[in-house]
Write a structure and sequence with these properties.
Helix content is 0%, strand content 36%. The chain is mainly beta. The strands form five sheets. Strands 7-6-10-8-9 form a five-stranded mixed sheet, with no helix packed on it. A three-stranded antiparallel sheet has the order 1-5-3, with no helix packed on it. A hairpin with a 7-residue loop joins β8 (97-103) and β9 (111-112). It is rod-shaped and about 120 Å long. The protein starts with a strand and ends in a 21-residue tail after the last strand.
């Protein structure tokens, strides 16, 4: 538990003066940003001499929201404490994309990790950032007896369209006139 101790001397020129024998109760204590007053070790006392009173502060707890930014995330909120580490962060998922981290904005922003410190003084949202996946496509012309293809391999990003009509293949050998290339299929037994 984080505790900040502040010392307050009530009998100096900047504080209220009381006559000996009167009861004094400190009331105008403003906590530092991100903290709340927890307690005062001498909340009220009878003035007999100069007294030092300690004020104890606790960091405020806020809610951290997770925006999967096009993906899905099983955890949507988490409590975080001012000036503490973010701690464990969830890993969202998105088909065709790789998760690259949590950021303070949907586009751009600052990257936040589990070892980053929470310095906001309000509830905050983190946004998932993604990198689109790239896949290698192999044009297997040899499994069904082919001997040549205009392209053997190329790379495409998730969701992109491939014009297979531009990728030719052929078969060589006896009875070439009996064979005509009709197209590509993901099933080697397709007819």
């Amino acid at each position: 538990k984080n505790v900040i101790t502040g010392e307050w001397v009530w009998f100096d020129t900047t504080t209220e003066l009381k006559v000996e024998g009167e009861t004094f109760t400190p009331t105008a204590i403003t906590p530092p940003t991100g903290f709340t007053l927890s307690s005062i070790d001498t909340p009220s006392y009878v003035v007999t001499s100069a007294v030092t009173s300690n004020a104890y502060y606790e960091p405020i707890q806020y809610t951290l929201y997770f925006d999967a930014n096009g993906g899905t995330c099983n955890i949507t909120t988490k409590p975080v404490t001012f000036e503490d580490y973010y701690g464990e962060l969830p890993t969202p998922e998105r088909t065709g994309y790789s998760f690259i981290g949590w950021y303070t904005a949907a586009i751009d922003g600052n990257r936040i990790t589990s070892s980053s410190r929470y310095t906001q003084t309000n509830d905050t949202t983190l946004y998932a950032h993604w990198k689109i996946n790239s896949y290698t496509i192999t044009y297997d012309y040899w499994t069904n007896g082919g001997t040549w293809a205009s392209i053997e391999q190329d790379s495409h990003t998730y969701g992109s369209t491939i014009d297979l009509s531009t990728i030719a293949a052929q078969k060589s050998g006896e009875n070439l006139n009996d064979w005509k290339f009709v197209g590509w299929n993901t099933d080697p037994n397709a007819t």
